Amino acid sequence: MSTATSSKTNERPGTRAVHRGARVSATKVREVLDLIRNKPVGEARTILQFTERGAAKLVIKVLDSAVANAANNEDIPPDELYVAACYADEGPTMNRWRPRARGRATRIRKRTAHITVIVGRYTPAELDERRARAASRGRVETDAAAQRARRVARSKASSETADEATDEAEVDTSAEDTGTDTEATEEAAAESDVDEAAAEATVEEAEATDGDAEESADESDTDAEATAEAAAESDADEAAAEATEDDADAEQADEPGKDD
């Protein structure tokens, strides 16, 4: 385990994070900080998650900030970090008053604290010792960045697979829709052809009916003309017969005179 080389706590080497003006007393925060001092970052975070103290929520945020600063600013993997130092200083105290008996008032002190967490990096020898100890216990410690990279890769692969499946489903759906639309278009075209054929047949039937009507009208006109001609001939024959009868009567009337 790394030990401090400086006599002052606030001068410890490492990456730090500070939370100033936390609305909690420094005494309550120190009880929580004593639990994680000189602990590996992962173990310290686990301890804070299961600590039933209100200050633990504030301390875990400061610890995460210090780890993030080390990872982003100095490219140090989180599994190589430990809590090198942590302390809480008293901040400004806000005074409030509570009315009491006989016109008196009691002071209420709203205390604040400045929480500091410093994370340091294990030496290569210490890292090898920790990994050997973990391997002897059946535990395998891996790089947190590598684990995260693998998780990200798996997530991307699964998302790409899901996207490909979705694209294939959309293509199949579009193909089915296209086939359905083509069939519907063909059926509509066939129905249209049938309707056009029926309309043409109706028109032809109407034309044939009109032709038959015209022929019937022509035949009727011819029959009427023939009937009129026959009637005229019959009238002429009757007139001729009457004229013949008149001539015969006239001749008979003239014959007695001739005898006298």
What is the 3D shape? rod-shaped
CATH topology of the largest domain: Ribosomal Protein L22, Chain A
What's the total count of β strands? 5
Name given to the CATH homologous superfamily of the largest domain: Ribosomal protein L22/L17
H and E order: EHHHEEEEHH
Give the class-level CATH name of the largest domain.
Answer: Alpha Beta
Plain-language structure description:
It is a single chain. The chain is an alpha+beta fold and 260 residues long. The protein has 2 domains: 9-141, Ribosomal Protein L22, Chain A; 168-249. The protein is built from 5 helices and 5 strands, in the order βαααββββαα. The strands form 2 sheets. It has a 3-stranded antiparallel sheet with strand order 1-5-2. It is rod-shaped, with a radius of gyration of 60 Å.
Helices and strands, with pairings:
Elements: E1 15-22, H1 26-36, H2 41-49, H3 54-74, E2 81-90, E3 94-99, E4 105-110, E5 113-121, H4 124-136, H5 144-259
Antiparallel strand pairs: 1-5, 2-5, 3-4
Q: Which keywords apply here?
A:
disordered N terminus; 5 helices; three-stranded antiparallel beta sheet; two-stranded antiparallel ribbon; Ribosomal Protein L22, Chain A; alpha+beta
In brief:
The chain contains 5 helices and 5 strands, in the order E-H-H-H-E-E-E-E-H-H.
